[in-house]
Design goal:
alpha+beta; Arc Repressor Mutant, subunit A; three-stranded antiparallel sheet; about 60% helix
């Protein structure tokens, strides 16, 4: 395997782990919410409509993938998005979703 191909495969593996960490409706909902500002676990639990244990598992997967930054303040933990460009990424996904049903080319 050439060094270039090895690098491409390594990049693809790293990207796949990040995409896999987002690939759940609840996690996408969490990401969407955090794009508008940081939230504590209680806020995210209410928003996601799941119990704290389930939410904590989702947050752990996302944090491990490098998607989130967390900060403990007193008894609460606050989460925020690690990279603000995810908003643009989601806009592209939305455009692809809309254009795939109309056979139009994405305009991003």
């Amino acid at each position: 395997m050439t060094p270039r191909l090895q690098k491409l495969k390594s990049n693809a593996t790293a990207r796949a782990s990040i995409v896999k960490a987002m690939a759940h409706p609840t996690r996408l909902l969490i990401m969407e919410s955090l794009m508008h500002g940081e939230h504590c676990v209680n806020d995210l639990t209410d928003m996601a409509g799941c119990d704290v244990t389930t939410l904590s598992k989702h947050l752990a997967v996302m944090k491990r993938a490098g998607l989130l930054i967390c900060e403990k303040r007193g008894l609460q933990v606050f989460y925020q998005i690690a990279c603000p460009c995810f908003a643009e990424f989601f806009r592209c996904i939305d455009l692809i979703s809309k254009t795939s049903t109309t056979n139009l080319r994405c305009a991003c």
